């Protein structure tokens, strides 16, 4: 056990030295870090699972983890072609097996030729295997209607998370009133608040407009920036599109307005586009910041600085565990880009299996390839099911009095707003909990449903939300949504 400062004399007597590393001496920035998606509610969910295994009686038989965007953990099957190529790369003896299609074998051989010692077990260069960065560049070019991408501006990463933190590290500088500030949406994905706390940067909140399906309003950006300039030096603006936890897909007009704003105010843009394949709502379409920025022409195209992030964790792939992702930087100062390369080289390289998966994602089987039909069928099936689950979630929640859910236009989550009676709010305060944490904890204890309170993502004062993924299997989703709604009704009644 750690000894406290006052225990010095006792330590001297017993000969036990005080720990060098204690809560008092450790990096205080890390103590400030919070990450709701894996916070107290999830720790309790783990305990409950353990208790169920030990035969403790509960009002439910399983814990349903609807707290995290981890598709395969919720039963989604991996895409066959991705795993075939990966398996062949990991164990090249399988190249002689008749059980793998020819195009998967060709692809694996192609990738292995680009690996050190022709093995996945070798480090790659720090920015990622050249061949894969070239394939990523081709993918971006095709996605963006022919706008070119330079492999030298692409850095493969350990999931998108690692690339995001790397770019934030480059941005953060200064002390006191000149400390860097980064504008982030509220509600936000808590990697941003956590990374900014760790880096001792200033988190500058701008609120998305819930009444207008979580629209991003430039007037609100202006307000946030004006206020922030009184106490820090805002240098970057982050946009998550499609949104997590809010599920909105930004319009092209909105993106143009954000780019103009960032340019006028000299802000580096971070575009978190990991859900670019997850767009469901009719009339919604994904527009990449890179494409919009380039099509806006001068001066934006050749001056506005941008980092755009993507990942193999989301989309139809859901390959979170392999930690594959990339960042493309646009108009970055070449000297800074050199520093970024150096920073990444300290960590040696992103996991090579994750790089391989990324390669297959960005260059899937072509129509003439034997695996094309199966690949397309599997991909479309996953996306169609997610679209149906997005719709169902919105529908069931909106049938429940006291719950309002905006359309889930994209990404993998609903973020419904719920009414909580004043007595429940008061009870939560007595317990020292945020009211929505109190609700989510009670929900978990009674039903086994694990969702994350809105307070973990940020929300307007006096409003209460929770984030629930749309990932549970279709046959479980409706009963789950109904159970959650019924619990909300019961909870409301109990505290009315
Ligand atoms: C908006 C957003 N950005 C980044 C990430 C990180 O993803 P990765 O698994 O690629 O690190 C997530 C994961 O949920 C996310 O939701």
From TrEMBL:
It comes from the Eukaryota. It holds the Pfam family Aminotran_1_2. It is found in: Cytoplasm. Keywords: Acetylation, Aminotransferase, Cytoplasm, Phosphoprotein, Pyridoxal phosphate, Transferase. It catalyses: L-alanine + 2-oxoglutarate = pyruvate + L-glutamate. It is an enzyme of class 2 (transferase). Residues 114-484 form the Aminotransferase class I/classII large domain. Its cofactor is pyridoxal 5'-phosphate. Signal peptide: none annotated. SUPFAM superfamilies: PLP-dependent transferases. The keyword Ion transport does not apply. The keyword Cytoplasm applies. Homodimer. Catalyzes the reversible transamination between alanine and 2-oxoglutarate to form pyruvate and glutamate. Participates in cellular nitrogen metabolism and also in liver gluconeogenesis starting with precursors transported from skeletal muscles. This is Alanine aminotransferase 1. It comes from Rousettus aegyptiacus (Egyptian fruit bat).
